[in-house]
Design brief:
Bound molecules: coenzyme A
Strand content: 25-35%
Oligomer: single chain
CATH class: Alpha Beta
Largest sheet: 8 strands, mixed
Number of domains: 1
Length: 198
């Protein structure tokens, strides 16, 4: 697949016009401000706490090395969402990408998450990835509903897998999307373009 996305691009949502653009080192302060306002519970799906400046700096380093592609959703100059597409080309899963995303509490339920998810999905298609995974705590109903509506299915439950700052553990659900298989099915029905346009 060769689809390429150009950024920045503007998307209309119920939260108003949102600019989507690729994240870079210049965005560090804006993203830190965004991350520090998020409820800690909403960060438990991430391997590390991005509200800590050191962790954020390491993330940007991974973007610079090409291991993560991150998109920002920006409203009137303020970051209201961000996503990451994580790959490891040196692992046994070079064909797999992990999607991570989070949206500001004050704009949730207005379509920003869906638009960000679709953009990130499109990036994964453009990168030729064959499978996507996503993980979240089991109580993140909106996230689960959003990814299931895009064809992701539950693949694993990791019990007591993360521990919050109060010492309480939470279960993690892993959802997967086998893009290659879905695309093969669509081609069998004569709809090869449908996945790329989603
Ligand atoms: C998941 C998340 C990014 C969604 O962002 P959002 O901007 O609220 O998403 P949207 O408004 O585009 O809603 C997307 C879908 O989520 C579902 N949804 C939204 N709010 C919901 C709620 N309160 N309860 C159940 N489902 C809900 C709906 O299915 C909605 O689909 P629709 O477009 O048909 O209405 C946001 O809730 C979030 O940041 N959660 C915490 C972080 C997290 O767990 N991330 C998942 C790991 S990748």
């Amino acid at each position: 697949m060769t689809e390429t996305r150009s950024y920045p691009r503007d998307v209309k949502t119920d939260a108003g016009e949102i600019e989507f653009r690729l994240m870079s080192r210049e965005d560090e302060a804006l993203v830190l401000n965004f991350a520090q306002k998020l409820p800690t519970h909403d960060l438990l799906f991430l391997p590390r706490n991005i509200s800590q400046p050191k962790v954020l700096s390491a993330w940007i380093h991974e973007i610079e090395r090409g291991e993560i592609t991150s998109l920002l959703a920006v409203k009137n100059g303020r970051v209201v969402g961000c996503s990451g597409l994580v790959r490891d080309g040196h692992s046994w899963s070079p064909h797999v990408g992990e999607i991570r995303m989070v949206v500001s509490v004050d704009v949730r339920g207005q379509g920003v998450g869906r638009a960000l998810c679709q953009e990130t999905f499109a990036l994964a298609l453009g990168a030729g990835l064959e499978k996507l995974s996503v993980q979240m705590t089991v109580d993140q109903q909106a996230a689960i509903a959003l990814f299931e509506s895009l064809g992701f299915k539950a693949e694993a439950l990791l019990r007591d897998h993360v521990r919050d700052l109060d010492g309480k553990t939470h279960d993690i659900v892993v959802l997967g999307h086998n893009i290659a298989r879905v695309q093969a099915q669509l081609e069998a029905f004569g709809l090869p373009e449908a996945v790329q346009k989603s």
